[in-house]
């Protein structure tokens, strides 16, 4: 699965809050037990990642609706085994469910 999502970095490691905590529109690609981030679909095609970020390993990741996050709708959270945690906002419930399923099945 790939497409645009709004992303907020919450944790950059166990007990380490992310320093850049604002929401950004990123193009996300879930593939082969990894999620990769790009500025847009064109950048994804060239393989040039968003701000040079490395892909996030999805093995043993936890992904679910961010029911405790009330400021925005259709938000899900993804916590990777390395302690990175992100919030993602989809455009509606259906899109959110598709992303959660894609992450869990990656
Ligand atoms: C952040 C930005 C985020 C906000 C975050 C701020 O500031 O306002 O939208 O998260 O709050 O730190 P900046 O743009 O200056 O980096 P929310 O939208 O979830 O409130 P936080 O630090 O409490 O997560």
UniProtKB/TrEMBL annotation:
Protein name from the UniProt record: PH domain-containing protein
Location(s), subcellular: Cytoplasm, Cytoskeleton
Domain of life: Eukaryota
Family under the similarity heading: Belongs to the spectrin family.
Residue span, PH domain: 1-106
Included stretch of the parent chain: 445 to 550 of 643
Coiled coil: none
